[in-house]
């Protein structure tokens, strides 16, 4: 991380609650998201919620060959986070915020990236400006956004919230394949001021391309994976196969976007969602100029898979009902066998957190795809629920047309 972020900075990753309307409204998820880079942080200072750093989770990660960043700093709650960011800024370090912040909260801080830059590059209404005229699906702004205008739209179509607030997780996107989906989309976005109406892409593949955008060097790709989405559109992980690469058109488009973001003043990590249509043309549909759920996963797979004889891996979002410590103990044989690695964890019984399920991001690996499926089932048998909507292993049997849907009704 040091070669990307440079000296004199610290990572401030927390999403502030009043900015979460188009991302997530669950406080424990907000706190869990801060730990996305703990396994690859190196010596870059980074703030994370204390519930992501329980002794048992740190022990399990180290036993799996991961090195916890030596400058990871924990906070207890929102106010503690604000105070620590302010104090670290006063010491001369510049915060690298991962999300736009509410006006006035960090007024005394001098951020490494301007808030207006973060807002611009993550606003979906600016996607075509960053991707170029031919890189984004045809789109227009529906303004004013009213029910009559929505119901008059032709389907299939894609609706996205035009906002400079943080957005993602399908909270800000609706795919309307049939006319009956339009009133549901209007209800979902009733609080939005502006809506993007975008062409529906008949996609054959959905790629996530990760990028490093250093402060003092040209942007470079740091890997790629296939995104896994449920039928209802919720993103539930990523799949990577050793030696598999997206078409050149995807990589070229990702580079264009990364360079455009850098010209706007952004640096750090990024991840771009790019579809390939049935004619082989690439279309970027979402820009994440921040650390993403797959950022650490990609680095860890590259470092661990080949030495362990693994050819494919999956990032899974796991929920645990019966305590994180007990679950990690049951996973010990899988850790020792080398096919399971905890990327990040959240234990609501450790630290100041709301009651609820423990959760973790797990990297599941296999010597081939059949082995990966078997290992996924083994993990389920240990007590992991991969997603509340998911009842069985699915990534091999999911319909190709559903892999790219960002939301569905």
Task: Provide a brief overview of the structure.
The chain is of the alpha+beta class and 409 residues long. The chain is 27% helix and 26% strand.
Largest sheet: 9 strands, antiparallel
Mean pLDDT: 91
The tally of strands reads 17
Shape: globular
Q: Number of helical segments?
A: 13
- Beta-strand residue percentage: 25-35%
Tally of structural domains: 3
Order of helices and strands: HEHEHEHEHHEHEEHEEEEHEEHEHHEEHE
Structural class: alpha+beta
Instruction: Work out the radius of gyration.
Output: 20 Å
Structure overview:
- With 409 residues, this protein is of the alpha+beta class.
- The protein folds into three domains: 2-121, no CATH class; 139-199, Dna Ligase, domain 1; 295-402, 2-Layer Sandwich (Alpha-Beta Plaits).
- The protein has 13 helices and 17 strands.
- It has helices at residues 2-5, 27-32, 55-63, 78-90, 115-122, 127-131, 147-151, 181-188, 248-263, 295-304, 324-330, 332-337, 369-381, and strands spanning 9-12, 46-49, 72-75, 94-97, 139-142, 157-161, 173-176, 195-199, 203-213, 220-229, 235-241, 268-277, 282-288, 312-320, 340-346, 358-366, 384-385.
- Strands 9, 10, 11, 12, 13, 14, 15, 16 and 17 form a nine-stranded antiparallel beta sheet that branches. Strands 5-8-6-7 form a four-stranded antiparallel beta sheet, covered by helices on one side.
- The radius of gyration is 20 Å and the shape is globular.
- The chain starts with a helix and ends in a 24-residue tail after the last strand.
- Residues 387-409 have low confidence and may be disordered.
């Amino acid at each position: 991380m040091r070669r990307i972020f440079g000296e004199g900075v610290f990572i401030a990753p927390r999403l502030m609650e009043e900015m979460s309307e188009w991302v997530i409204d669950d406080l424990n998820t907000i706190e869990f998201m801060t730990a996305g880079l703990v396994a690859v942080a190196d010596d870059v200072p980074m703030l994370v919620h204390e519930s992501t750093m329980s002794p048992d989770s740190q022990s399990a990660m180290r036993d799996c060959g991961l090195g916890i960043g030596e400058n990871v700093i924990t906070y207890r709650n929102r106010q503690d986070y604000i105070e620590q960011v302010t104090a670290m800024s006063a010491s001369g370090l510049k915060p690298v915020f991962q999300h736009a912040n509410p006006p006035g909260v960090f007024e005394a801080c001098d951020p490494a990236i301007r808030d207006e830059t973060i807002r611009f590059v993550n606003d979906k209404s600016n996607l075509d400006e960053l991707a170029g005229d031919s890189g984004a699906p045809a789109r227009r702004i529906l303004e004013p956004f009213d029910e009559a205008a929505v119901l008059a739209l032709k389907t299939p179509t894609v609706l996205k919230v035009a906002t400079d607030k943080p957005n993602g997780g399908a909270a800000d996107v609706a795919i309307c394949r049939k006319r009956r989906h339009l009133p549901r989309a209007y209800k979902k976005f009733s609080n939005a001021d502006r809506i993007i109406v975008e062409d529906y892409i008949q996609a054959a593949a959905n790629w996530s391309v990760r990028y490093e955008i250093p402060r003092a060097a040209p942007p470079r790709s740091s890997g790629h994976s296939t995104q896994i989405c449920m039928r209802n559109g919720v993103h539930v992980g990523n799949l990577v196969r050793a030696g598999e690469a997206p078409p050149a058109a995807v990589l070229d488009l990702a580079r264009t976007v990364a360079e455009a973001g850098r010209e706007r003043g952004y640096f750090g990590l990024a991840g771009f969602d790019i579809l390939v249509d049935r004619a082989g043309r690439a279309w970027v549909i979402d820009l994440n100029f921040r650390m993403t759920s797959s950022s650490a996963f990609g680095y860890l797979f590259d470092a661990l898979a080949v030495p362990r004889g693994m050819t494919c891996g999956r990032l899974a979002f796991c929920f645990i009902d019966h305590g994180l410590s007990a679950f990690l103990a049951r996973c010990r044989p899988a850790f020792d066998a080398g096919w399971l690695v905890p990327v990040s964890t959240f234990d609501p019984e450790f630290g100041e957190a709301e009651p609820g399920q423990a959760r973790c991001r797990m990297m599941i690996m296999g010597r081939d795809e059949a082995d990966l499926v078997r290992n996924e089932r083994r993990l389920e048998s240990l007590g992991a629920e991969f997603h509340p909507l998911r009842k069985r292993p699915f990534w091999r049997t999911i319909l190709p047309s559903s892999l790219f849907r960002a939301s569905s009704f």
